[in-house]
Write a structure and sequence with these properties.
It is a single chain. By secondary structure, the protein is α/β, with parallel strands linked by helices. α4 packs across α11 and α5 crosses α11. It has one domain. The longest helix has 24 residues. Strands 3-2-1-4-5-6 form a six-stranded mixed sheet, sandwiched between helices. The chain is globular and about 55 Å long.
Length: about 375
């Protein structure tokens, strides 16, 4: 009996030691919230924002046809359940659906991008599935025959023959504003309401054929730039390996985004990447929550930061983020990269590539 008791005690001690070693070797888990209150969401969006800036294009739809080509490598690199940072419009949703972050911040110099993402937030929350979402997005009646197993191509093909509806547009726009102002209690300014009107009217006028527009071409639908894909084209293209990875390619991807939006965990912020406040505020928040950045989608913004002589400011801002060896820049560049990871594509001026954030910002970290 004594030997048995000693053996049991030895086993318990050994088990506790092994457990302690195991816990000690695990990476520290972040403390990002599982949900933000409406007040917390709005405070982050407003307190972290900088004054509205200008850019030469509207932000209603991406102009990067090949944005999916980096997704296969991206999902092999980044760690899910972390923080995502991005710029611009709907292409972020595809990267978020792929990388599965616990929280996302969308930082853009244009206040209009914040308004755009508020419209998206309302539409995700108000739409049970992809077919309903596309119906509300473009103010078109839902065609028969669509289901949760329909492909993105089937969905957009079905909607291509459905005319836009002025009645649906008016009701949806009213519902969007009511959802944001009354359900969430967001204190939208007169400028926000005008921005929401502009975004939603452009989608209504152009439908799924809407393309990237230069500032001043505010009809939203007429001739986009040559070689630029439509919204429908962006949603139905593939990753270069035959798999469509757009956020509307599957019901699972859509529902992941809908869940994040419903829990107020996709936060739009107004800010210049080279500015003094927005990125550093997001970085400080993530550090406080012990969260690591998984991916940072910069599009081709760095090109303009260099032109303006403030790329070093951006570099120092990013160096304040909590990073590790897997933290990844997703960049787009006209004509390709010096370290190019994909081949050029006819009809698409932009190529996308992945870079280690730690490596890229190491040269400016010491001077931040």
């Amino acid at each position: 009996m004594v030997h048995k008791a000693l053996n049991q005690r030895w086993f318990l001690c050994l088990s506790a030691f092994v457990l302690a070693i195991s816990i000690g070797t695990q990476p520290a888990l972040g403390q990002l919230p599982t949900r933000l209150t409406d007040q917390e969401f709005w405070k982050l969006a407003t307190d972290y924002s900088e004054p509205d800036g200008t850019f030469h294009s509207e932000n209603l739809v991406s102009n990067e046809l090949r944005f999916q080509t980096v997704v296969p490598a991206l999902v092999k690199t980044v760690v899910p359940g972390r923080a995502y940072v991005g710029v611009g419009s709907e292409q972020n949703f595809t990267y978020i659906a792929a990388t599965k972050p616990a929280m996302a911040f969308l930082v853009d110099i244009r206040h209009g991008n914040l308004d755009l993402h508020l419209v998206y937030k309302a539409l995700f929350e108000m739409s049970a599935n992809r077919a309903e979402f596309v119906s509300k997005l473009f103010s078109r009646s839902r065609p028969e025959g669509l289901s949760e197993t329909s492909t993105a191509t089937e969905i957009f093909t079905a909607y291509s023959s459905v005319p836009s509806s002025q009645a649906l547009y008016a009701q949806n726009l009213k519902d969007i504003k009511n959802h944001l102002q009354n359900k969430h209690g967001f204190k939208l300014s007169a400028g926000d309401l005008e921005g929401i009107d502009f975004v939603y009217n452009a989608w209504f006028q152009a439908g799924p054929g809407i393309t990237y527009q230069l500032t001043g071409s505010r009809g939203g639908g007429g001739g986009g730039l040559g070689g630029i894909s439509s919204y429908a084209g962006l949603m139905t293209t593939d990753d270069g390996q035959g798999t469509n990875r757009s956020y509307l390619a599957s019901e699972d991807s859509y529902k992941f985004l809908k869940d994040l939006e419903t829990r107020n965990l996709i936060v739009p912020v107004v800010g210049n990447f080279g500015g003094p406040k927005a990125l550093r505020a997001v970085a400080a928040y993530l550090k406080e929550k012990k969260a690591v950045v998984s991916a940072f989608y910069t599009s081709n913004v760095e090109q303009y930061l260099r032109q303006d002589g403030i790329w070093e400011n951006f570099c120092r801002n990013v160096s304040t983020f909590p990073l590790d060896a897997t933290s990844t820049f997703i960049r787009s560049e006209r004509g390709g990269f010096s370290v190019q990871t994909i081949a050029p594509s006819p009809g698409s001026a932009f190529n996308s590539a992945l870079f280690s954030i730690q490596t890229e910002v190491s040269k400016c970290a010491a001077s931040r």
